[in-house]
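As agreed, record minuted below.
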Amino acid sequence: MSGGDFRRSMPEAHADLRRKAGLMQSLHIDLPLLVLLMALSAFGLIVLYSAAGSELHYVKRQAVFFVLGFIGMFIVAQIPLSMMQRWAPWVYAGGLILLVLVLLVGTGAKGAQRWLGVGGFRFQPSEILKLAVPVLLAGYLSRRLLPPTFKHIAWALVLIGVPTVLILKQPDLGTSLLIAQSGVIVLFFAGLGWRYILGALILAASALYPMWHYVMHDYQKQRVLTLLNPEADKLGAGWNIIQSKTAIGSGGLEGKGWLSGTQSHLNFLPESHTDFIIAVLAEEFGLLGVILLMALYVFIIARGFMIAIKAQDSFGRLLAGALTFTLFVYVFVNMGMVSGLLPIVGVPLPLVSHGGTSLLTLMAGFGVLMAISTERRRVTL
């Protein structure tokens, strides 16, 4: 090929590249992330069918929420980042009002008052704050000089602390800790100095005694004691974790086969279709199935951090990093509590455990990631 032919061929290739990128940009889709989410969702439905005792009711309900979740993800992805930043304080304020209403007129179950009922439909307002807190904090800090000063750190901690305390009063220790970490990680990614981090660790250590005696409820203390010695009450508090570890260990390398797990199908394993669903997966698909699941999570998390790194401004970087790290915390906490490494705090396994409101919130977070990704493409192409 002559030099002239080479020069003539470049505009056509460049135009084709722009057309392909433009299609993804116009639809606001991050294709690698979408493929990974669909693969994980499909795998989750397969595991859920067995965990729910082959009852299609749970699978159909979860499939409906998946459809709604993906639709919500695409809708959120169309929202410009500037609009998210502008509306975050209002969403945050609305979420706080709903949390106060939960404490006043909320509905309860199993000793906790965490839901609001509207027209026969029940939802958890705390799910709104899982997304509102990192968006608000990312917007607040990105408009200021980084790393943040003591004044800005103090205000950020107030914004984190108010919803955390309100949720803690429901009581819902697991969700309050997740929301707190989603805000703190924004501070960390903003360049929080190590002296502040060390001070926070010392403060947290000194707060353990008063929290144990004056903040934590009896059932929360029991979960910690059960973690340290589950065999102390084999038929009571330790039953869940003992049966979970039995299911995980009995799966071996390749598992007993789909629909062939004994711990869940013989009702030894409680909450098998929600918090403890990975124990079902480990029993039926073995170590290989767990590795496959973890690989999907690793690829999704890696894609999220790649989006954060390539974001064009501080708001996008802080927000994408916080949302991605929050997904990691979800996975880590669920797997840790099911395997007996962490206390049981009721954290579902993302896109695998049966659930409605939490799934919609999670998919909205992925929509934000896609908005950040396509915002980058719109600027750079």
In short: The chain has one domain: 29-373. The beta strands are 107-109, 112-118, 121-123.
